[in-house]
Structure formats: structure tokens, C-alpha cells
Amino acid sequence: MYYGKQGTVWNIQANQASWMVRKILQAYKDLEVVGWNEARVIQVEKFSTKQMYQLLRGEYPKVEWRKLVCNTIACPKWSLILYLTLQGRLLTKKRLIACGSVDNTKCILCEDGNENIEHLFFSCPYSRQVWQKILQWQNIQKQASRWNEEQRWAHDHYKGNSPEAKIFRTTLAASVYNIWQERNHRRRLEILIL
Ligand SMILES: [Zn+2]
Fold first, then answer.
1. Where is each Reverse transcriptase zinc-binding domain found (predicted)?
2. Which of 8, 106, 155, 174 is 20 to 30 A away from residue 193, measured at CA?
């Protein structure tokens, strides 16, 4: 309401605002990527994550990550978080500290390591345990390993269209999503306590 007084919220420069307000105001950059302008956004009655995911995904040439994200039975929000993780775009503390919105990079799942994508998936003892149990549940005899290794292994073994491959990719998306949700839940509690 406050910023809307200037008539438009699309290109407001609010350099004095909190990082969260600035982040919201800068969201237009993501919307412009899919060709939306402010008038288009105003028309939206109910935001659809699925639609936005499909718009953002676009018609890219086939690349490695595509085989892991697409053609699963995962719901769109799982695929979206997996996609962001594979692209290195998850807003971990390592990225947040660069813009000054956190003052430490301590992982809030194990309270030991530094929170970045490599640590969260699955160097962190907490998330490694989750992924190890999911692997066991699928009867996959393998130790949970580092993110780059997991990607390579998944690509080598489960890129096809067999039911096992689809289930594997779905469990990967579900695990990444739920670990990230747990991290966000604890992060909210951490902010409340501060
Ligand atoms: Zn950790």
C-alpha cells in the first residue's frame, strides 16, 4: 500500500527498505523472464506454482539436469526446488550472507557445518541420514554421497523411463524438497528467537 502510492510497484527503488521488502520488490525480475508485466500480474487471481514452474522451465535444450527433473511423478513444487538446487540457485545461508541478510552460515540441521548446497545435499549428517534411509527403502545398496556424486550416479543409473527410474527421481525430488522445508521451518524458528 505504501509503495503503491507512487502509482506502480514494478520499478520502485526502495534502497532504504529492509532486505525482505527489497527482495519482494525485485521479484519483478523473475516475472519479466517469463514475459509478465505489472498489468499481467494484477490480473492473477490465484497464483499457480505449477504454471510458473512451466513458464520458467521454458523450452530449453535438453541438458543433464532435465533428465533428473522431468518425467517423474513428483508434484511441481518438489521439481521446482530440485531444479533450483541443481542450478545452484537455492537461497542458502552461503548466498544470503553475501547480501547481509544473515550473520552466520551455520547449518541449522546439524548445527555444525556451513550451510550451502553441497552441505545440505548430502554432506550434512542430518540430511545424509534421510537420503540413506530413502535409498534403503528402494533397496539400493549404496552409500549416500556428495551432491555432485549423487547427480552423476542418478544420471548414470536412473535417467530412463522405467518405473524404478521414475520412482527414484521422484524420491530424490521429494527428499531435497522436504529437507529444504525442514531447514526453512527451523530458520523461521531461529528468526523468531533472535
Ligand atoms: Zn548440516
1. 47-131
2. 174
